[in-house]
Structures are given as C-alpha cells and as structure tokens.
Amino acid sequence: MLRELIETVVLTLVIFLLVRTVVQNFRVEGMSMEPNFHDGQFLLINKLAYRLGEAQRGDVIVFRYPLDPSRDFIKRVIGLPGETVEIRNGQVMINNQPISDPATVNSAIYNLAPTTLGPDELFVLGDNRPNSSDSHSWGTLPQDHVIGKVVLSYWPPSDWGLIRHGMADPGFHPEGT
C-alpha cells in the first residue's frame, strides 16, 4: 500500500515536471497586444518551439523582459537575426522594405533609426503599438530571454483556440500598395 502511494506520488511529480518543461501558462497583463490578446486572457506557451526551430516573423512569443528579467512580456516577432529594422512614421521597414502587418490595427506614428540585429537578437513589437513597451523603446531582445511561442488561448472561453502566427514578408502588400 505504501509502495503504491509512493509510486503514484513519484509518477505524478515526473509527469508534472515533464509537462512544465514543454508548456507553461501565461496571463496577459495590459493592453499592449490589443485587439488580438486581452488583459486577463490565459495562454499556453510551447517552451520547446525554439529549441527545435527558429523564430519566424509574426510569431507571438513570451519572454523575460530585458530590463527586469523577473517580469514576462508578450509581443510579436517583427525582426529576425541579421535584419535591419527601421520605423518611419509608424511604417515598419525590414531591410529597407515596408512590411504589411495585418495583426496591427492600432498603429503608432513614431520613428526608429535603422537597427541591425545581431545573430542572437529579435525585434519585437506589441500589436497595440501606441500602448506597448517593446523593442522600439528598450531595444532588441536577446533570444536567450525567449520563454516560448504562444500556441493556445484557454481563458476566457470566448477566446479559446489555437493562435494564428505569421505576417507578410517585406515587400509583400496584399492590398496592392
């Protein structure tokens, strides 16, 4: 009887630890990702996504905030290692080409001088650009700060579902401009 109890407890701990190495939950705080992610929304993060592959433009990620690693932030990947990112009157340019960003509804009118990303850096922006603390204000994101890729929204029930990622590559303009 005691042995079965110990085996059950050990098995439970092993399963818990395995799950925690693969997924993590995250609660959105603030309005920086509106209208796509809302304050109080709960998400699941795939912590293995970037151990098995590379970040892609448009991925929504959770990471340790570079200025205070005790805090976790959620943002969208805009610039990839080796690229040059610039913002002209709110228009994001990658390697001097404008990008189309359908996830951003509330764009900002600010400028950012060209910034070339190092081999282990990302450039991230919030979807609600005027109300986001992101790479335009505090700089590039070291990839070793990335916790994982957002894969699922599970609360509130009205937002339940898999998360769509991706955005147009530089120079791609579906509206024909």
Q: How many structural units, i.e. domains?
A: 1
Order of helices and strands: HEEHEEEEEEEHEEE
Largest beta-sheet details:
8 strands, antiparallel
- Helicity level, as a percent range? 10-25%
Q: Please provide the count of β strands.
A: 12
The gross shape turns out to be elongated
CATH topology: Umud Fragment, subunit A
Mean pLDDT: 87
In angstroms, what is the radius of gyration?
Answer: 18 Å
Beta-strand portion reads 25-35%
CATH homologous superfamily descriptor: Umud Fragment, subunit A
User: What's the CATH C level?
Assistant: Mainly Beta
Judged by helices, strands and strand pairing, the structural class is: alpha+beta
> Number of helix segments?
3
N-end to C-end Cα span: 72 Å
- List segments where confidence is low: pLDDT < 50 over at least 5 consecutive residues: 168-177
CATH architecture: Ribbon
Describe it for me?
The chain has 177 residues and is α+β, with helices and mostly antiparallel strands. The protein has one domain (25-162): Umud Fragment, subunit A (Ribbon). Helices cover 16% and strands 33% of the residues. It is built from three helices and twelve strands. The strands form two sheets. Strands 1, 2, 3, 4, 9, 10, 11 and 12 form an eight-stranded antiparallel sheet that branches. It has a four-stranded antiparallel sheet with strand order 7-6-5-8, with no helix packed on it. The chain starts with a helix and ends in a 15-residue tail after the last strand. Residues 168-177 have low confidence and may be disordered.
